[in-house]
Each structure stands twice: as C-alpha cells, then as structure tokens.
Design brief:
mainly alpha, globular
Length: 304
C-alpha cells in the first residue's frame, strides 16, 4: 500500500511539473499571435480559472469552515495572495514578453535556493556547506543560460526580461516561506483556492484602474482558446496534481521531480515555438537543476 501511494505521488508530481512547464510556452504563443499586454492576459487567465476555484472551494469545504478561515486568516491570505499569485504572476507574464520560455523556467527554478538564502538572512537559519555549493551552482547555471540566450536572441530585451522573471521568483519565494504555516492550518486545497481568488481581485483592481473591459472582448478566437488551455491544463490541474504529489512523497522529493520542468519547457518551446536549443543553455539549466536537487537532498537529510 505504501509503495502504491509513493507511485501515485511520483506520477502526480511529475504530471503536475510537466503541465506547469507548458504555461510559458502557451503565453509566448499568445504573444506571437496577438497584441496583448501581460495584464490583459493575466485577467483572461483568471476570469477562466476563477469559477473552477470557487466551485472546488465550496465542494471541499463547508460554508461554516470557510467563514472561520476568513475570520482567522484573512490578513495573511490577502498578503500571500497579493505576493504569490498577483505580483509574482504579473512580473512573470511581463518578463516573458522579452525572454525565451526556456530561460524563464530556469530562472523561476531558483525558488528553492532563494528560500534558503531568505531564511538565512531573516530567520538566522545557517546555510550548510552543501547548500552553499548548491546555491553557487544554481546561479552559475543562470549566468550561463542568460549569456547563451543573449547571444542567440538579439531582438529581445534579455536583461529586462530576466530581471522581471527573477523578481517574480523572489516574490514567489517569499510566498512559499509565508505560506508554509497556513498550509498546515487551512489545508492545501482551501489555501490554494483562497489565494487564487484574492489574487483575481487584485488583478481586476489593477486592470480596471488602467483599462476598460471592452478590449478583453476584441481578441482573436485562437487567443481565447489558448488562454482557456493555459487556465485549465497548465494552471488549475497541475496546481492540485502537484499538491497531491507532495502529500504522498514530501516537499523534498517533489522539488527533485520538479526538476523536469525547465527541461520540459525547453523541449516544448523548441517544438511548439521553434526556440533554439543551445549546448550552453542545456549546461546552464542542468546546473540550476543540480543545485535544486542538492538543496532538496540537504533539506531531506536535515529533517531525517
């Protein structure tokens, strides 16, 4: 029975990571066919996703429990929803206007190393020698991937795009640190639904202050179809698949399996978008993944 649960966990986490990795490819595909801003694309994604998250929340939680959560944790949920699924998502979508999908996924995969560094700076958690090696390897890998993309794609603003995505990874790392305690108190499904619903509110406030709703109904049919696929296939389904995987195999093993993400994005971007795959890009991405594997192994060893 235990082996069956581990197998389910591995398959769930692997499927979730691969589906997540499709998101930047679909975003780049929309940017290629439509003159759409990152904010408009975020609104479309959330408009499609929101009804599903509301349904899932009320399906799995009683109204009395939801009211209790809101009364007890609304301030934390507001802050985490703002940081994790509004600000981090907005910066990520903006960065993808300037850099290839493969580089975006490699930069975002610095999250575990950022969590270690932030925890050391603000919570005085000591960085072990193994963790230090992992951090150095990861950031060397990003520099290599960054320089290789600067050479291969002279028409994009690689520095700006990389900085935006790096900022996204930083804020998502803050979200991960802050959410750990509330995931235990509220549960994965409810927590994800709360933060996604609140993020939608922030996105709509941002959008309505700068735009009218009219432009959202003027895009090509293909854009709406791809946005729907992005919302269902690479947002909603993997968010719960990966959580299910973590439940069975733990966060450390989940992080290791998540290493398939950057490689999957590079392959998908090559076949769908025609992005080139350079040897230095592969080396850089491999170093980032190696760093994350070491960080995950170190965390697992410490908790043992």
């Amino acid at each position: 029975m235990l082996q069956d649960q581990k197998f389910i966990g591995v398959i769930s986490a692997l499927s979730g990571a691969i589906l997540f990795s499709l998101k930047p490819v679909l975003i780049k595909l929309i940017y290629a066919i439509e003159d759409i801003s990152s904010l408009e694309l975020l609104v479309l994604r959330m408009l499609i996703s929101l009804p599903f998250y509301i349904f899932i929340l009320f399906y799995f939680q009683k109204v009395a429990v939801i009211k209790s959560h809101i009364q007890s944790f609304w301030k934390a949920m507001l802050l985490l929803g703002f940081i994790g699924f509004y600000l981090a998502s907005y910066l990520d979508f903006s960065g993808l206007q300037y850099i290839p999908a493969g580089l975006e996924r490699a930069i975002l995969f610095l999250n575990p190393t950022m969590v270690v560094i932030i925890s050391a700076l603000y919570f005085k958690k000591e960085i072990s020698r193994l963790q230090a090696i992992a951090i150095v390897l990861s950031y060397i890998g990003i520099v290599i991937a960054f320089l290789s993309n600067t050479q291969f794609d002279t028409h994009s603003n690689i520095p700006l795009g990389s900085m935006l995505v790096f900022s996204s990874a930083f804020f998502y790392a803050l979200f991960l640190i802050g959410s750990e305690i509330y995931l235990l108190k509220i549960g994965t499904v409810a927590f994800t639904c709360y933060t996604m619903i609140l993020a939608f509110a922030f996105i709509m406030i941002h959008y309505l202050f700068t735009n009218s709703l009219y432009p959202l109904f003027q895009f090509q049919a293909k854009t709406y179809w791809i946005a729907f696929m992005m919302s269902i296939i690479s947002t909603i389904i993997p968010s719960f698949l990966f959580s299910e995987g973590i439940k069975h195999i733990g966060a450390s093993n989940g992080s290791i399996i998540g290493g398939i993400g950057p490689i999957s994005t590079i392959i998908l971007a090559h076949f769908i978008l025609g992005e080139s795959i350079g040897s230095w890009q592969i080396i850089g991405t491999f170093l980032v993944i190696l760093g994350v594997v070491i960080i995950s192994y170190s965390a697992k060893k410490t908790s043992a």
